[in-house]
From TrEMBL:
CDD domains: Sm_like. GO terms for cellular component: protein-containing complex. Pfam families: LSM. This is Sm domain-containing protein. SMART domains: Sm. Residues 8-76 form the Sm domain. It comes from Nematocida ausubeli (strain ATCC PRA-371 / ERTm2) (Nematode killer fungus).
């Protein structure tokens, strides 16, 4: 039986070792393997990779180049607070 609480629903659907993609902001996401989750929805990800993209903009007639950056985070990545 599922309740309406997001943490309980998250615990029932996710297991240790699942791969997650967490959207942090509009242009930033982190993908990693779930290691731990607690009642406050803090996630502990292993082998996390952060991806940032920069949207092109028009400024003074010059177009900024769109670039995607990926940065490997060795070890573990800890998120605190709500997602």
């Amino acid at each position: 039986m599922e309740s309406g609480f997001p943490t309980e629903a998250l615990h029932t659907h996710l297991e240790k070792g699942n791969t997650l993609t967490v959207l942090v902001k509009k242009d930033r996401s982190v993908r990693g393997t779930l290691s731990l989750i607690d009642k406050h929805m803090n996630l502990l990800l292993q082998d996390a990779v952060e991806t940032r993209t920069q949207q092109p903009c028009m400024h003074r007639g010059k177009k900024r180049q769109s670039r995607g950056r990926s940065r490997a985070i060795w070890g573990m990545y800890l998120f605190e607070g709500s997602l």
